Amino acid sequence: MSSTLPFSLSPHVVVLTSPDLVELLRDKKLPQLPDLLRSFTPLESISARTTALATTTHDRYFLRFSDLSEVESVCKEDEEARASRTLEWMSSRVSHRAAAWVREVEERPLNLGKEMKWWEDIRLCTEGDITPNRTEGWNHPVALILATSTMASNPLQSISNLHSRAINFPPWVDPTFLKFTLIVHPMSSSPLNMDESQSLLNAVKKQHGAHAHLMCWSLSGSSTTKPFVPRPPQLPPPPNGAIETSSNPQFDDLTKDVEIYSTILGDDDLQSISRFVREFATQSLIPWMERNVIEWNEAYVATRRLPSRLFSTTRRFFGTSGSSTPTTSSPSSPAPSTDVQQRRLAEFATFLGDIRLATAVFDTLRKDTSNTTAADVLPLLLTPSKTLESYAHNALLGARFVGRDPSPSSQLRALKYAVRWERGIRELNIIEGDQWLVWAAGASEEVPSALLLAQAAQMCARKGSLRRATLCYVAAADRLDKCGIKPLTMHFLRLARDLCNTPVQKPLSPAFFEAEDNTQCGFDGISSGIDHALGRLKYTTGDAEGAVKTFISLLHPANTKEVTKTDDETYIEDFKVALEHLMSTSGQEAVSQLALPVRFCQPHKTQIRVGTLDSDEDARIWDQLEEGWRTYWKPNGQCTLRSSGIAQAEEMFWVELSMHNPLDAEVVLSDLTLTVDAPESIDFTIESLSEVGLRSKETRLLHMGLTCQSPGTITISHITYSFLSLLPITEPLTWRGARLHATPEQRQGKSYGPDHIVRVQILPRGARLDVELAEADSHPMRLGEMRKAIMRLEHPVVGGSTEPLTDIWVMMGEAGWPTLPQCLDHQSDTGLSTSDFGLRNTLDPLDPMKLPLEQLTGSSLLGLGKHFDLQVAYCGYEPGLHDISILFVFRKENDETFYTARMRIPFHVEKSLQVTAHTRPSVDTKDCAYTLMVEVDNTGAQDVQISRFSTTSILWGIQDSTFTERISTIPVTFTLRNFSISRTVKCMLDLKQKPDILLSPSHLPAVYAGQTIFRRALAPLQTCQIIAHMVVSRPGAYGLGGWSLRSEIAARNSDNEWRTGQVYIAIAPGPEEEGVIVVRQG
Q: What residue spans carry the Low complexity bias annotation (predicted)?
């Protein structure tokens, strides 16, 4: 048969040997005859003729030889039982050889274009199956070789006994096969000479037909070494031994390069065997199949009702040929059914290379009969295209390979189909044939199905479909893991991981990824799951160190992967278990090289805080106040201002670290401390943190105190902590500098400035002024409320200078409009009472105010240990949270350096009153031209008493209104009319103002007293009037809007009952069209 078709679709020849020949081969240490003949196939350049008189040449023609008794034995076993044993046998072979296969593959560079050992083993086990099947005839014998030797006491009788032996095949096995007689003549040891052997051959031809051959062996042992082809793996017999087979276990292991005892046979013996195999194929088997094809084709054409004259030349050609091949010697048997005969016709045409006839007959079987197994062969015969996938679907449906739990026979048939497609269709990968293997694997969790997925993954990887290949490898690994084959499971997971991490070729400019700062590649959505499964397998197989490394690699930032919180929690839990086990077995040294792939510290947000833990916004306010002081003092000459935000010797300052948890799980960091690089002359102490918990995605500011005993410059280089109280981690507190764009070279590449480091300048200890809030009201303020607070300023004994303080200035921010009542020189001259509040009529910033120490303390100097209280008044000018920022600038005696101290007073302002004012021309112009109407609403939770009302304007007068003391009503008439001539209408008029109805802002809203909802039922064309009473509280224009009208159209049925039909809702006209009632003051 052609080499383009799978080996399993080649003619199956069974061999029956006499006992004397079996003994001869065993004595000479030669393989049995079927194995011996198999070594001389395939045959080269074999020609056959089609029914169209065309000659087809096969470059390589395969024949399958097997023992007749073995085929008879396997036919007796139940199909389902044998299929189940076959799947278990394949799984066992893969399980025992997987470790060696994986080790061999991983020792060399990966070559996905080469057939893998595990797939080769599955393929050979599948193709080596010789069991005849009820639904197809590929394993049905096409020829029977009856072999004996001249070593028998009566060779002719031995041949007669072979011919008379009953063939013990089931009735569904096709009885049409060629009988051929083979006589082996060992010339050196046979009792017959050459002439007698030739006479024996002539007698056999006369008695049993011309299909006979005499094979002479010299057994000289002078041939060169020729490796014999080992037999394909064969299923062992059942454990009960009820079925006997002649399989030789020495040929089952294909991992060895077996050279069978070839030293007995000489070169002439090998040539004799090769000549016999070739003559058997060309002079007997192929002509016999050609004649059967002609005969069956005539019957097929007759059933199809085609003109027989098209085939007359075929009959004339084969009928008048001078072929030396006699007529068929198949035993007499009942004529097969039409569909079975057509199936054998298609199979024989395939053996002969008559692809056109085979395709037509197989397609007829697929359409006209219930034999859907023809669909599996058509993809092998037709031109490869995407349309062939429908045949693959039909073939798997015909195998009843459906559902979650198909039968073993269905799984085995699907496996056979997949092996044939993978082996017989060269362009299978081009037509998306990897999907066919996935369909054939189905939902079965057997080892062969898993390896089908692995082979589909390899095909996808060859054509660059990395995502599909990854998914197939993961699915194969999952099924193999359930079967307990760990080496292959881990190998497939590693392949899937490598494919995930392979960069995907995208038709985009590299500058795009550089601009997006995206260096990720592969498929992050599934890579984590692959690594997690691989890590667990490593842990279960005893590789704790590899498991720890795999688990720690899973801890990526959550914004670069598609996982859920449960995944990260699982990864951390597994990592902790594996790490504890590793440390208990290998010690602390085993984890010294481990490093987290994520960072919890954000070094670019590191801040140095001195005195108070101010925010960045507060720092900007202090900078503005200090800059205002420098501007104020500039006319007096240069000054040195030492900010209180600068660290000083013997004073604690804080290192503020921003810790962010990028994982989707809670983590615990313990034993947090800093690494400080300082000169040897500087001693320092660090306040470490024992434990910090970070929730998922949480960002927390940590403050670690640091005190230096002497001035100088220190560098805070690293932060160290223990991850999960197990793994020591050190993170640098440096971050990359800004990208440079100054020169063309910098713009063309990636150039960055020097890294930023956390460096702290420690100054010598200077003057110190302690400021604290001695008295303040913490309750919320009302909008516009004025309050006072008391600050206490002290020259401390500890930590400060011994010299007294001579001058103290105060600079305050604008929040709260703060003032210092004790420092206002004009307070007694303004005539303002304590409840008055004065505002500056200027946009210029506040100037520093020098405190009158003589007035406040009774002395011009603030001595060591002395203190005084200072009042600050402020106003709740705007709702919300606010801070009053107060900067104290001071200096000590005989010192030109100015020092600072800071004070911050927080307060909360709530809005209690809602005030609305309306103006209109006054009716009485004698007293005033305009009238101002003020409405005050209490929006707070407490009662408010208004004791005084004042205005601020150029010229306003206040006149008490007496109109509100007398509230009157005005009748308003609404007219409703039903314009329908046949329907009754139910109406509901609602005069309550709705919040969603827009009213005119220039009109007063209409408020009605008494009844505000009116319901009426109007007959056809009926009219009614509704009178409502509008409340008039003051003069003005009142807008008649805000009402709504609901109308229901009702119809009477035969029982005089109301049935609601359509519903309409009408609202008042818009603000520009609403009616107006003007009320004047009488």
A: 319-338
What's 154's domain CATH number? 3.40.50
The whole-model pTM stands at 0.67
Are both 757 and 786 inside the same structural domain? no
> E strands along 678-804, which residues?
684-686, 689-694, 699-708, 712-723, 727-732, 758-762, 770-775, 781-782, 786-794
pLDDT over 90 for what percent of the chain? 18
Confidence label for 293 from pLDDT (cuts 50, 70 and 90): very high
Find out whether 746 and 719 touch, Cβ atoms under 8 Å: no
Report the C-alpha gap between 735 and 742 in whole angstroms. Answer: 21
List, for residues 875-902, the tens digit of each pLDDT value.
Answer: 888 888 888 888 888 888 777 888 888 8
pLDDT score of 240: 67
Task: With H, G, I as helix, E, B as strand and everything else as coil, classify residue 524.
Answer: helix
Give 601-618 pLDDT, tens digit per residue.
Answer: 999 998 888 766 556 567
Cβ neighbours of residue 35 closer than 8 Å, sequence gap 6 or more = 65, 228, 231, 248, 251, 260
Contact 801, 767 (CB under 8 A): yes
Whether 152 is covered by a domain: the verdict is: yes
Nearest to 475 by CA among 458, 500, 492: 492
**Co-location of 991 and 1037 in the same domain:** yes
Q: Are residues 858 and 753 in the same domain?
A: no
Is there a domain that residue 529 lies in? yes
Residues 6+ apart with CB under 8 A from 960: none
Residue 999 is assigned to a structural domain of this protein = yes
**CATH classification at residue 994:** 2.60.40
pLDDT at residue 179 in the model? 93
Are 621 and 676 part of one and the same domain?
A: yes
List pLDDT tens digits, range 986-1024: 898 888 876 666 666 777 888 888 888 888 888 888 899
Are residue 137 and residue 202 in the same domain, yes or no? Answer: yes
From 926, 941, 956, give the residue that closes a domain: 941
My answer on whether 758 and 620 are in the same domain is yes
Is 555 within the bounds of a domain?
yes
Q: Are residues 803 and 738 in the same domain?
A: no
Nearest to 445 by CA among 399, 477, 398: 477
**Residue 1031 confidence (pLDDT) above 50:** yes
How many whole angstroms from its chain centre is CA 705? 43
Strand partners, 673: 720
CATH number at residue 731: 2.60.40.10
> Domain check: are 623 and 753 in the same one?
yes
Q: Of 59, 57, 40, which is closest to residue 48 (Cα–Cα)? A: 57
CA-CA distance, 749 to 745, in Å (whole number)? 6
**Residue 642 domain boundaries:** 603-762
pLDDT, averaged across the chain: 81
Strands 770-775 and 727-732: unpaired
Instruction: Please state the domain count of the chain.
Output: 5
CA 861/CA 853 separation, integer angstroms: 7
Q: Which residues does residue 903 pair with via DSSP β-bridges, in sequence order?
A: 886
Q: What would the pLDDT profile of 44-67 be if each residue is shown by its tens digit?
A: 999 999 888 888 999 899 999 999
Q: What is the pLDDT of residues 245-273, one digit of tens each?
A: 444 433 344 333 334 444 677 888 888 89
Specify the pLDDT at position 998. 61
Do the Cβ atoms of 561 and 528 come closer than 8 Å? yes
Q: Is 53 left (phi over 0), alpha (psi -120 to 50) or beta?
A: left
Which tokens belong to 777?
Answer: 């009201």
pLDDT band at 426 (very low <50, low <70, confident <90, very high): confident
CA distances from 489 to 450, 479, 499, 854 (A): 10, 8, 15, 89
User: Which 3-state string (H, E, C) describes 27-87?
Assistant: HCCCCCHHHHHHCCCCEEEEEEECCCCCEEEEEEECCEEEEHHHHHHHHHCCHHHHHHHHH
Out of 709, 740, 762, a domain closes at 762
pLDDT at 63: 92
